[in-house]
Amino acid sequence: MIDIRQEDVKDYLDWTKLLITINSAAVGTLLVKFDASSPPSLPIQIGAVCFLLSLVALLVSYTGLVEHQRESQERTNWKTSGSLMFSWATFLAGFGSLVFNLSLV
After folding, report:
1. Which domain does 30 fall in, by range?
2. How many whole angstroms from its chain centre is CA 29?
């Protein structure tokens, strides 16, 4: 579990909102850029799936952080901390797959 002080929750919420925006833009761009006439390569597909998974996990963690604001304890519940860690991992994996795709070109 992650220990988050009450005065730091606002910072975590701001960073989570920023990552939600970045993931939404990445998913939207990857879906609009490629259509059926030009199918994307495998690293691009993996990146899109990773960004989408990260977006869902960030929405879950945002909800958990809002609930954590009202609690008196510093330790978050397992759903919030697990979704935060999963969202970071999938965000980095999606970014890494896009960088890997650039090395193939």
Report:
1. 6-104
2. 15
Confirm whether 1 is domain-assigned.
no
Largest Cα span, the chain: 54
Give the model confidence (pLDDT) of 30-77 as tens digits: 888 777 677 788 998 999 999 999 999 999 999 999 998 888 788 888
**Complete DSSP assignment for 25-91:** HHHHHHHHH--TTSPPPHHHHHHHHHHHHHHHHHHHHHHHHHHHHT-S-SBPPHHHHHHHHHHHHHH
Domain presence at residue 81: yes
94: exposed, middle or buried (C-beta count within 10 Å: 0-12, 13-18, 19+)? buried
Q: CA-CA distance, 23 to 2, in Å (whole number)?
A: 23
40 domain-assigned = yes
Q: Is residue 14 a part of any domain in this protein?
A: yes
Q: What is the model's pTM?
A: 0.88
Contact 9, 76 (CB under 8 A): no
